From TrEMBL:
<dbReference type="InterPro" id="IPR041224">
    <property type="entry name" value="BPA_C"/>
</dbReference>
<dbReference type="Pfam" id="PF02368">
    <property type="entry name" value="Big_2"/>
</dbReference>
<feature type="signal peptide">
    <location>
        <begin position="1"/>
        <end position="30"/>
    </location>
</feature>
<protein>
    <submittedName>
        <fullName>Beta-agarase</fullName>
    </submittedName>
</protein>
<dbReference type="InterPro" id="IPR003343">
    <property type="entry name" value="Big_2"/>
</dbReference>
<dbReference type="Pfam" id="PF18040">
    <property type="entry name" value="BPA_C"/>
</dbReference>
<dbReference type="InterPro" id="IPR003305">
    <property type="entry name" value="CenC_carb-bd"/>
</dbReference>
<dbReference type="InterPro" id="IPR040527">
    <property type="entry name" value="Beta-sand_Porphyrn"/>
</dbReference>
<dbReference type="InterPro" id="IPR013780">
    <property type="entry name" value="Glyco_hydro_b"/>
</dbReference>
<dbReference type="InterPro" id="IPR008979">
    <property type="entry name" value="Galactose-bd-like_sf"/>
</dbReference>
<keyword id="KW-0378">Hydrolase</keyword>
<dbReference type="Pfam" id="PF02018">
    <property type="entry name" value="CBM_4_9"/>
</dbReference>
<feature type="domain" description="BIG2">
    <location>
        <begin position="711"/>
        <end position="789"/>
    </location>
</feature>
<dbReference type="InterPro" id="IPR017853">
    <property type="entry name" value="GH"/>
</dbReference>
<keyword id="KW-0732">Signal</keyword>
<dbReference type="Pfam" id="PF18206">
    <property type="entry name" value="Porphyrn_cat_1"/>
</dbReference>
<dbReference type="GO" id="GO:0016798">
    <property type="term" value="F:hydrolase activity, acting on glycosyl bonds"/>
</dbReference>
């Protein structure tokens, strides 16, 4: 940034950019002049004072559960922000079309009011909030707009008090872009019908609220995608216009969302600038045409949509919307008189988002989790995001408007005066830097200092925010591309005015005019207030004389024409004196009008006079806001005439060129000398080419009058939520001055005891020491004052939080646990820790009391019994009132996965029950359970162990006991039909006499109930471990739903059981089972490289090469040699050469990975016995191929050498060799 010091002159301060300021940019930047007239108060419509509540709001509710007191104080005091919008309402409450009755609304509403009062943030409630709802809560099965509207009116009448009822209700958020969700097709007809149905909902709700006399204002339709110009304005006709036709009569304001970027759907574009202006002007114009008034706007969301970033937070990512907030804000500030509210889409915390995204914040939030304050998944504190800088920039701006003027559409200016403060806000819409020359017109005082706040957000960079104060008064400033600057000038005394400027907007009865080449489009503006301090003869005739349009007009008068005009001027003055305000009805005036209409030479003289002097004595400038929608290659500079006078149309407009959009749709501001305006005006617009529409033309004019001073007579200070404040945080007070139209509403703040608290010029109270103090606001004229008594507490503003700091994984089995709890509390409270089961069944609670402050408390929870090994529990730490129960809690931290250590169990890979706690070393039976017909009991106990720490106790004192495992826990094929299994377990009888025992049995429930024969076991001895072994062959039943059951039948016995084991003892039919035939050892041995392998050969055992199981063999080589593997004679089983008259099946699985086929041989051969070889040639494809041969055995016993087994691939120099081999198998065929 660059500034140049200058000098304020007594009558005229001309702040020009000096050569030293321009420096390197003097050839790149043309300066833009801004005239600032402190002597003139400005009104937009009837509004001059900046109503901050309309502009500086969070998209959040102050009573939202995600906020704490600390958050609300930050928003209100530091950011000076209000609250604007929240999602909830009657249809969200009902959720179905079975809407509650009025009687139910009365009863449930009373409960709701009570609950709202009990909200810990209830004292911050703000009525200036919009309640809105998701369309899916409204458009439910059987939804009825009439019945639903009755329920909505009941809800707003009975669920709130007059002091808490929200001022605004937006029945659905962005409904039209969701029409397809409810009709299931993109077909336009059903979507159009659904949109009309949605509009009917708005209409019926608005009507019902009006009939009830509810103060809540209904707004809609919350347009997400106001690309009104699309499809030659069919979008306008089918959406916004349709809504206004169906529901507009009952709407208190029209709501829509403006975003730079893509909001839900539509083109990626910049709305800020001319496009936003055109959207607003079209809605205003149609409102005026339809109802004779402009209904207000409710901008319920606005901002920027960013892309190209992940979920991770960065200052750069968080900054990108800031440009859009400011660009759009300046448009809204210029329409305050017809703005209900505006809400930048800056939300609060959005816990739902960061909890799902590893604590990275939602892009729109103003607060984010502090990475240093996240403990065990609990966020203990938050940091501001870059979004806070928007509010910091504007935090102190207030006051009433003064007159400013600029000619550059890409520079927006707003100026406000509050006492001795002048706030000048500048916004650069341009993609390039802009040099601004400030021209303070005709003001005598010199400011003593200037505070400069700057917010510059370069694309793809973090925001650059600065706040500086200087006693050098800068004469010029250079704005970076898209930068916003707020200058706060301080003068020695209050700024006073001598005049008032009134800005009014006028709307034509014509709109949406189709453009036809060379065909004038006419727009008429009536009842325009023109500047007319001294009514001349020519001015009086302006609206009464009809001119010959074909007559040439000269911007000069001949001597004779000047003489005639003077003569008639003298005559007109006589008429005015005689008839005063009724001169237009006088006979003489009517004669003069007739004379000038009938006499061509007089008509010509009058036209020439108007061409030179205009129709009134105004010296200022009006603006025609022409909004057009057409293709980019079409002209945007038509011929425009105002009351017959040609005006220049600029080839520039606010913001970017819109080239990224399909069509241009924007407002072009055309300067018009105000002297050419009349009470009734005709504007003619002629384009040289066809297509497109002029959607609207709005005439904006300013008139000036002598300043009318309305003195302040009363003042009040808005009460704080609490009459006390903490000693560590400033609070911001607000004063209301009466009457509402008082000219100067600034107040002087003072403190009764600055040693307790001070107060600055902005009403910010800074506590110094605990004690009592009175803060007083006095009107500038000293007529009235108001005081607020405050107590500064000896207390700090702390977030009330708790978090368990311990890791709660794999804790030892115990009946007492100690928890460390980090806490922050603003008053003395209890910390309670409770343990419950995974399903939420309470077990035990302990608590301790902590003093106000921060720290770590240790809470010991004693339990009635030890927690179960391997089980999961919940732990909740809560911060409660001292002596209070769970209902007094202000914060909590719940951990749902506290686990108790499961002793490490060594799984016997040969035991088919290895994964199912067969030795009971977990300390529990699970997954073993009692059989369905068990009468007695079974449980684990350390004294029942033969080996390890635990065993199973089986007690048949009360009756028989069976123990089993649910068959669903076994994988399919865990027990295979036809296989032989050995069951073994260790058994000791502890109680009982004689013979006692039971049986084992395999059970299958896949198709009814089936079981193997009962295999009985038993003992006669006592207190001695005995090993039990039983074998069984599984019958031919399905390989699913099979389990084992041990059933103890003898009554009156107590048994100890340990080390239950089931082994598959079925002989393996594969002759090669002992030589790693399927490579499941993870190694290649005992296989060795084939004798022909060359140096390029790589033999690898890997998971990637497996057909089944975990491992297979991969063979790779260059293919110049036969390549493979061999089982050497001393390893290879010789079954194939025993000459016993048997047949054998030889098989394996293989595939080629080269993209082509692979060929080879599998061969069993003894050295010196080639004629007795057993072999086959094979070919492998790119998918797994099963190779299989059947051969009779041969006689190798007569040979001197035993045989080997070779499996090799033939040389393949073209593609090389890359083959997977698995499951090599040799099996005797019966």
């Amino acid at each position: 940034m660059k500034f140049v010091a200058g000098v304020f002159k007594q009558k005229l301060l001309s702040l020009a950019i000096s050569a030293s300021f321009i420096g390197f940019s003097q050839y790149a930047l043309a300066s833009t002049d801004v005239k600032i007239n402190l002597t003139k108060q400005k009104f937009i419509g009837d509004v001059s004072e900046l109503d901050r509540q309309k502009f500086f709001n969070l998209h959040a509710s102050p009573t939202a559960s995600e906020f704490s007191e600390q958050d609300i104080l930050f928003f209100k005091n530091e950011l000076n922000a209000g609250f604007g919008r929240a999602f909830w309402g009657p249809l969200s409450t009902a959720k179905t079309s079975d809407y509650p009755t009025t009687e139910q609304a009365i009863a449930n509403g009373a409960t709701s009011i009570t609950n709202a009062k009990n909200n810990p943030l209830a004292h911050h409630h703000d009525q200036r909030i919009i309640m809105t709802e998701h369309p899916y809560n409204v458009i439910v099965d059987g939804n009825d707009p009439v019945a639903g509207a009755r329920w909505a009116a009941d809800y707003f009448q009975h669920y709130y008090t007059d002091e808490t009822r929200p001022l605004f209700y937006e029945p659905m958020n962005e409904p039209f872009v969701h029409s397809k969700d409810f009709v299931g097709t993109w077909d336009e007809a059903p979507n159009a019908e659904m949109r009309r149905h949605m509009a009917t909902w708005f209409a019926e709700i608005g009507k019902a609220f009006d009939q009830r006399g509810l103060e809540t204002q209904v707004v809609g339709y919350s347009a997400a995608w106001p690309s009104l110009e699309l499809w030659d304005f069919a979008h306008w006709n089918s959406r916004q216009k349709m809504f206004m036709d169906v529901a507009g009569e009952y709407m208190d304001a029209f709501s829509f969302h403006l975003y730079d970027g893509v909001n839900v759907t539509g083109q990626s574009n910049e709305r800020s600038g001319s496009n936003a202006e055109a959207i607003i002007d079209l809605i205003e114009t149609y409102s005026y045409i339809k109802w004779g008034e402009v209904k207000p706007h409710a901008i319920t969301e606005y901002g920027g949509i960013i892309d190209g970033y992940g979920v991770e937070y960065s200052a750069e990512k968080s900054s990108q919307e800031l440009r859009s907030y400011n660009h759009l804000l300046f448009s809204f500030l210029e329409k305050e008189d017809r703005l209900l509210t505006s809400i930048p889409f800056i939300t609060g915390i959005a816990k739902w988002y960061y909890q799902a995204n590893n604590f990275h914040p939602y892009s729109a939030t103003v607060l984010r989790p502090d990475p240093a304050k996240i403990v065990n998944g609990k966020v203990l504190d938050y940091l501001p995001t870059e979004k806070a800088k928007f509010f910091h920039l504007w935090a102190d701006v207030k006051g009433h408007r003064i007159d400013v003027a600029e000619q550059d559409p890409d520079l927006a200016v707003q100026a406000f005066v509050y006492g001795n403060k002048l706030f000048v806000a500048l916004n650069n819409y341009d993609n390039a830097n802009k040099a601004v020359n400030l021209d303070f017109v005709e003001y005598a005082q010199t400011p003593s200092q200037v505070r400069i706040k700057r917010l510059n957000v370069p694309f793809a960079e973090a925001a650059q925010y600065s706040d500086e104060t200087s006693s050098d008064i800068f004469t010029a400033i250079e704005l970076a591309a898209h930068e916003t600057v707020v200058l706060e000038y301080s003068y020695q005394t209050d700024i006073m005015h001598t005049a008032q400027v009134h800005q009014a907007s006028y709307y034509a009865n014509e709109y949406m005019q189709e453009i036809v080449a060379n065909q004038p489009l006419t727009f008429n503006f009536s009842q325009v207030d023109v500047q007319q301090d001294n009514l001349s003869f020519a001015d009086a005739l302006a609206d009464h004389v009809t001119f010959d349009k074909e007559m040439p007009v000269k911007k000069s008068l001949s001597r004779s024409q000047k003489f005639m005009i003077k003569r008639f001027e003298r005559l007109f003055n006589i008429v005015k004196r005689r008839y005063a305000g009724n001169y237009q009805n006088s006979f003489l005036f009517k004669v003069l009008v007739k004379f000038f209409n009938e006499k061509a030479y007089l008509n010509q003289a009058l036209q020439n006079y108007y061409a030179v002097n205009g129709y009134n004595d105004a010296t200022g400038q009006a603006t025609l806001r022409m909004s057009i929608g057409r293709k980019h290659d079409k002209s945007k500079q038509p011929v425009v005439k105002v009351n017959g006078h040609l005006v220049d149309v600029p080839n520039n407009w606010k913001g970017y060129d819109q080239a990224a959009r399909d069509d241009f749709f924007g407002t072009i501001e055309i300067p018009v000398a105000a002297k050419y305006l009349k009470v009734h005006n005709q504007v003619d617009v002629t384009f040289s080419d066809s297509e497109g529409h002029v959607s609207s033309i709005v005439l904006v004019n300013q008139t000036e009058e002598v300043f009318e001073h309305v003195p302040a007579t009363d003042v009040s200070i808005e009460a704080l939520a609490n009459s006390s404040i903490n000693k560590d945080k400033p609070v911001r007070l607000h004063a209301n001055v009466l009457p509402a139209n008082a000219s100067y509403k600034n107040v002087l703040w003072s403190s009764s005891d600055p040693s307790i608290a001070t107060v600055n010029e902005h009403g910010v109270v800074t506590p110094i020491n605990p004690g009592f103090v009175a803060i007083t606001a006095t009107t500038a004229n000293g007529v009235a004052s108001s005081s607020l008594d405050l107590q500064v507490l000896d207390r700090e503003t702390l977030r009330n939080t708790v978090a368990i700091t311990d890791s709660l994984q794999d804790l030892a089995v115990n009946d007492s646990y100690s928890f460390n709890v980090q806490y922050s509390t603003d008053t003395d409270r209890d910390i309670a820790v409770e343990i419950s089961t995974a399903s939420g069944q309470w077990i035990a609670t302990a608590k301790t009391t902590v003093a106000a402050g921060e720290g770590v408390a240790t809470v010991v929870v004693n339990l009635p019994d030890e927690l179960e090994a391997g089980a999961t529990y919940q732990v909740l730490a809560s911060l409660r009132a001292v002596g209070g129960n769970w209902q007094t809690g202000v914060d909590g931290h719940r951990i749902t996965d506290m686990t108790i250590e499961q002793p490490e169990v060594i799984v016997d890979e040969n035991n088919l029950l290895g994964e199912f706690n067969p030795q009971f070393e977990t300390g529990s039976m699970f997954p073993w359970e009692h059989a369905w017909d068990a009468v007695g009991n079974a449980y684990t106990d350390a004294n029942a162990a033969k080996d390890g720490d635990y065993g199973l106790v089986v007690d048949t004192t009360a009756g028989k006991v069976g123990v089993t495992i649910a068959p669903s826990l076994f994988a399919d094929g865990h027990f295979v039909a036809g296989k032989e299994y050995k069951l073994s377990f260790d058994l000791k009888r502890i109680q009982g006499s004689g013979w006692g025992g039971g049986f084992s049995q395999y059970i299958n429930t896949a198709d009814g109930w089936k079981a193997t024969p009962q295999a009985w076991f038993g003992l006669t001895n006592q207190n001695a471990w005995t090993s039990i072994e039983q074998t069984v062959v599984i019958p031919e039943w399905q390989e699913t739903a099979t389990t084992i059951q041990l059933n103890f039948q003898t009554l009156g016995q107590v048994w100890h059981v340990d080390n239950i084991k089931i082994e598959d003892i079925t002989p393996d039919p594969n002759v090669l089972s002992t030589v790693n035939a399927n490579f499941e050892s993870g190694e290649i041995a005992p296989w060795v490289p084939y004798w022909e392998n060359n140096a390029t050969t790589v033999l690898t055992v890997s998971n990637a090469a497996a057909k089944d199981g975990q491992f297979g063999l991969n063979i790779q080589a260059d293919g110049n040699k036969n390549t493979g593997v061999t089982l050497a004679p001393d390893v290879f089983p010789q079954d194939l050469g025993l000459n016993q008259g048997k047949q054998y099946k030889i098989s394996f699985e293989g595939r080629s990975n080269t993209g082509g086929k692979a060929q080879g041989w599998i061969r069993a051969v003894a050295q010196g016995g080639w004629s007795s070889r057993i072999e086959t040639w094979f070919e492998l494809g790119t998918e797994w191929t099963h190779v299989e041969i059947i051969r009779s055995d041969v006689d190798w016993t007569v040979l001197a050498n035993p045989a080997r087994l070779d499996l090799y691939l033939l040389n393949n120099a073209g593609l090389g060799i890359d083959v997977d081999i698995d499951n090599v198998h040799i099996e005797e065929i019966e």
